[in-house]
Amino acid sequence: MTVRVGVLGYRFMGKAHANAMARLPMFFPDAPDVERHVLVGRDEDALADAADRLGFENTATDWRDVVEEVDAFYNLGPNHVHVEPSVAALKAGTPVLCEKPLANDLDGAERMADAAEDAGVPTATAFNYRFVPAIRYAKNLIEDGALGEIRHFRGRYLQDWLADPEAPWSWRNSAEMAGSGALGDLGAHTIDLARFLVGDVERVSGHLRTFVDERPVEGDEDGAERGEIETRPVTVDDAYSAQAELEGGTMATFEASRFSTGHKNDHTIEIQGSEGSLKFSLERLNELEVLRKGNRGYETILVTEADDPYVEHWWPPGHVLGWEHTFVHENYEFLSAVDGAASETGRGGGETADGSGDYHPNFEDGLAVQRVLSAIQESDERGEWVEVA
Amino acid sequence: MTVRVGVLGYRFMGKAHANAMARLPMFFPDAPDVERHVLVGRDEDALADAADRLGFENTATDWRDVVEEVDAFYNLGPNHVHVEPSVAALKAGTPVLCEKPLANDLDGAERMADAAEDAGVPTATAFNYRFVPAIRYAKNLIEDGALGEIRHFRGRYLQDWLADPEAPWSWRNSAEMAGSGALGDLGAHTIDLARFLVGDVERVSGHLRTFVDERPVEGDEDGAERGEIETRPVTVDDAYSAQAELEGGTMATFEASRFSTGHKNDHTIEIQGSEGSLKFSLERLNELEVLRKGNRGYETILVTEADDPYVEHWWPPGHVLGWEHTFVHENYEFLSAVDGAASETGRGGGETADGSGDYHPNFEDGLAVQRVLSAIQESDERGEWVEVA
Amino acid sequence: MTVRVGVLGYRFMGKAHANAMARLPMFFPDAPDVERHVLVGRDEDALADAADRLGFENTATDWRDVVEEVDAFYNLGPNHVHVEPSVAALKAGTPVLCEKPLANDLDGAERMADAAEDAGVPTATAFNYRFVPAIRYAKNLIEDGALGEIRHFRGRYLQDWLADPEAPWSWRNSAEMAGSGALGDLGAHTIDLARFLVGDVERVSGHLRTFVDERPVEGDEDGAERGEIETRPVTVDDAYSAQAELEGGTMATFEASRFSTGHKNDHTIEIQGSEGSLKFSLERLNELEVLRKGNRGYETILVTEADDPYVEHWWPPGHVLGWEHTFVHENYEFLSAVDGAASETGRGGGETADGSGDYHPNFEDGLAVQRVLSAIQESDERGEWVEVA
Amino acid sequence: MTVRVGVLGYRFMGKAHANAMARLPMFFPDAPDVERHVLVGRDEDALADAADRLGFENTATDWRDVVEEVDAFYNLGPNHVHVEPSVAALKAGTPVLCEKPLANDLDGAERMADAAEDAGVPTATAFNYRFVPAIRYAKNLIEDGALGEIRHFRGRYLQDWLADPEAPWSWRNSAEMAGSGALGDLGAHTIDLARFLVGDVERVSGHLRTFVDERPVEGDEDGAERGEIETRPVTVDDAYSAQAELEGGTMATFEASRFSTGHKNDHTIEIQGSEGSLKFSLERLNELEVLRKGNRGYETILVTEADDPYVEHWWPPGHVLGWEHTFVHENYEFLSAVDGAASETGRGGGETADGSGDYHPNFEDGLAVQRVLSAIQESDERGEWVEVA
């Protein structure tokens, strides 16, 4: 079967996923055939241009026309439009991949996860960093017990694009449109990796901060001329930190900021266990630092050998991959699950009893992360520890 | 004047300070003359041996005989013996240097700080990492505004000597003798650097954990033979984390552990401001990573130039210093303050009105740190944020 | 015009260039339209399979049938088949991209460069590392004088795939098929970067070594059974080093090895000038370490900002690129030159008077590198310094 | 016995060795008692001041008065005064430690080594980097075969104190006084480590360069006023590189420069063997990067464990040492050998038959290095490879 994909959103994430789909035939020949069937957006001119560049057959300005007709629906829009189209697609029995965080709030995420369960089709929350070869390698090490009992998990995600108080307002600064700030945008990735590599988050103590309360509206040139630049309020966090306890007794700390001057996309993970430790940094994503039992120091492993996860599809040892490759792996896995589910049951089947396939991270994983995000926000408001639901 | 120093404690810290005093004449010719006058301990044989090796003229088994007769008293014993001898020395008008943390609990620290204030002589809490040239360099950068408004402070101090559950029990595992575990032993350093570099800690949320509840008593060979090894309870934290707000609005996270497999003495500080950022690691203490305004990335500065703090006393550029040099700088500053205070007023005078000199970190600084330690413990118990007194 | 490309070779390099061409429309919309027209090889089954996977319209088993009919000919075969097809293509007026080193020996390279000059069409020697954004950034720094007068150039390219004496024989071990070993395969890249970044190589002293004289033939299972594994002689260098003087007085050292245990694709460049210095490592190709005037240490620049070379075509800051992206940039530049040349003159025109366009590194650059390779070999044989022709 | 030491030279090296001797009693209690007996120099005022600061009992302005009366003679003067006093001391049966390189030229070094052999007392060439714990650890690894057959040795020693053409002239710029420049001053260390860790140097190809031909005389203020600053010619190399073959077939490259902008005391060693590899950097001298068999990447070993070479004398794990500690270890070993030799035979005895003890690196080692220095210079002059005598 050819999987016809409909994609809502044609900017950063649209490009990342379109590229990923385009690269499957050459590098993952056992992936299903994929047709970039329809690109959905509101601005018709920009949309036509993007569809042409990104290789889509058709365009549409209303996702309602799309969610039923495609074999998979990608929801890559801002957070506040995650719920309605995703639920609609699932009600139509269409598998859905949705960007992270799953929703603006816990209620939205629950509706999406419920719809996924009802539909019994594959879903994906787009935590692409699970698909970094070095992260998969780390996962294997941990599952093999190479690190022993996990004592500490530390995850930090640092950026600096808001460090300048004059950086313009965007939807990412709005609670209504984004749900939260650094917490949902960056922290969601960290929390997903904590769950993936170690286990569920059981209780949290959170700390949110907004350093700059309002920001100029971009392009308000009239206002600039009059010296009355329009501003809009920042209603989300610029940075968050959290302390947590994970399943099995691991002590965890999380942190993210958009005010970390000099850090561009600096997502680091550190894990320390009774038998060994590891460190990962997204800006050096081909490397994993591992302290193995019997060694004394961290070993810098270049995760580019043929038998490392996903690597045989690409290049010889030492020929490094980039950030975008995580999307190729993610699309490969998700679209294979969609194809497998469809094959088994006609439409809507899958490898597992309920037809949802075994793809992870799915909407249930997205909901689990949302529960932690929500608990961190609640903890910050109440000034005390909060159990994760 | 020759400063005659009496030292309580002849193990790790005794050696570090004795070495520091011994090195002053060759490298800091303007330091006062110092006599390692008397070494205090209980085990007479071990004491005599240590005094010989460490260059002390005399020994004593009771600190009560010592605190009055010396020009400076160094209290390097376990935490639970910090209060009484230090207060007695101060009552006798003798300047005191005390190892960190200042006391087992807030009450003890307050008594010590009160005694210091009454005495009006120089005191020191031995936060030696203030005397790393790279940390002084960082301090100067921050004071010059090179980092702008400080947004983030992160401090972590990781060791692994308790990661093995069979590692033997010591006084450092006892609440009665040590007050706290990783928090007081390691966290005190981090919190002092936060205060030194950024500002006071205003409120905290803490998290303490004990991973291993009891440990074998070392050398219980009879028990080992019978298969009944004696154990003692671990009544302090093996690891802590904390979130905090600092004076001026800085968001801070602190963390320390004795279970961080592969980390030996890994104290790292990261600071991010509106104009620049910096990173420091104790295991590479000659280096400071600085992001300056106008640069794009962190610059690895080797803080070994002649005009870097303290460096002209030592070696040419690139000839790196070690951990112990921090004690030499600390002793130089403290003993100079002691000498200065004595010169002005006979005994007990100083550069400032009250004769305490301007030496920092003094007992007031030690008390300020103790307040944070105490608040972190209280926050952990209550499960909520706590204002620092 | 649509540029129809014929490609000889469908393994490692075939995949790298096919991928590069496939990605142009989405990321470099101003690139010419490119058709992967025909894939050339000898094994028809493998060829058909590769053509399907790599997106070629047609296949051919004889390059003679191809070189005239295409708009650009890519010669990605082993070194010993570089000359004849390339010269034939050029005689037919077809632009040629040829993998490095240009030829087995100086004579072959001269014939190719002569043919290129006669043809007056764009040619490329595939030194793809000129197209790493960080290398371009370095080039700009040097041209702007930021490093002052260049005193030192150091280039090393370390791999370890032959460290095991039982690693099987391949064409890369044969002087007849490869010309040289580490020198031509790896050193050619280093020497090209020396020329690109600093200037021509004027004289050299070379040192070649073969550590293992013969290697087993892969797949000789009969022999293995009889305990008589067939071996073939290694007639090229396993490693080389060289000292050199570059144009303008720069002192240079080059080195490469296939016996550097633990190093996979470790190409490092270091340049030190009177005003500043820089360091680059291929395994961390998104980074450049720069010592600028006015700074004290190396600054780790993540070359992923929108205004860094080629970066705006890809992803936001901190979203790192991989090894393969260098081929996309190289194909973009070369195919644009091919298109430009064709547009101006019908077939065979270009931006420059002679229609060759201004694309670099071209065959002349490939020849210049070959002269250095040849001089290093000659120097090693004669045991003395050799002037580069 | 108390070893009475006479020291010629009271600047940088005088301070380094005096400090080393002063620290022995506290840290190496089994070292012999050492008396800093007499300090030798020409400027009486400066000498008296230095003797006071460095802890010497006496001063002398003529080394002839000293070499007989002391139990060990330290020759820390400029290279051109190494031969005569050292030979005189040896003729008097006095053990000698001499700074590196052993002499200005091969002839001088041979005279010194001959005198050492005749005297049969311990001698030392002060290659202090053999006494870095990490280098000893590396030595042990190599001797245990952990790296297999050594294929590559690379050593580079980079400084930048002459990068500025206006940096003043000193004796180190004079062939008459220093013998050579970067080659003898820095390269001697590298070559000694090659011999220590791998084996003798058998043949070399050298390259020397002087970038700046003359330099201003420091303190010529009259000249500066008249605009006629006096200059002196630079008659030594500013930088050198060399290729070499070591005993056993190792391929080696050496390099040093005083023009490496941004590098202060950057001595790096890399060794690659058939089973493993290692890397060392003097500016991070507590660390050793080791690729062990069975691992995939370099492991960063902090060489600060109690059972690492020399470490148990100092501090707990992770409490790093500095550059100066190498001198303490060197003095400990040399003075113990002096003491041992004297004990056995009255004066002039030793552990070995000829009474020279087994101390290394001795004058024979210094001569072996000098042979390589000399061969590199000769090779540069002749433009061809030179066998080391």
TrEMBL record, chains A, B, C, D:
Domain of life: Archaea
Lineage: Archaea, Methanobacteriati, Methanobacteriota, Stenosarchaea group, Halobacteria
Transmembrane among keywords: no
Protein name per its UniProtKB record: Gfo/Idh/MocA family protein
Every Gfo/Idh/MocA-like oxidoreductase N-terminal domain range: 3-122
Matching Pfam families: GFO_IDH_MocA (PF01408), GFO_IDH_MocA_C3 (PF22725)
Annotated organism of origin: Halorussus aquaticus
Entry keyword set: Oxidoreductase
Domain GFO/IDH/MocA-like oxidoreductase as annotated: residue spans: 135-278
UniProt keyword annotation of NADP present: no
Single annotated GO MF: oxidoreductase activity
Gene3D superfamilies with a match to the protein in the record: Dihydrodipicolinate Reductase, domain 2, NAD(P)-binding Rossmann-like Domain
SUPFAM superfamilies recorded: Glyceraldehyde-3-phosphate dehydrogenase-like, C-terminal domain, NAD(P)-binding Rossmann-fold domains
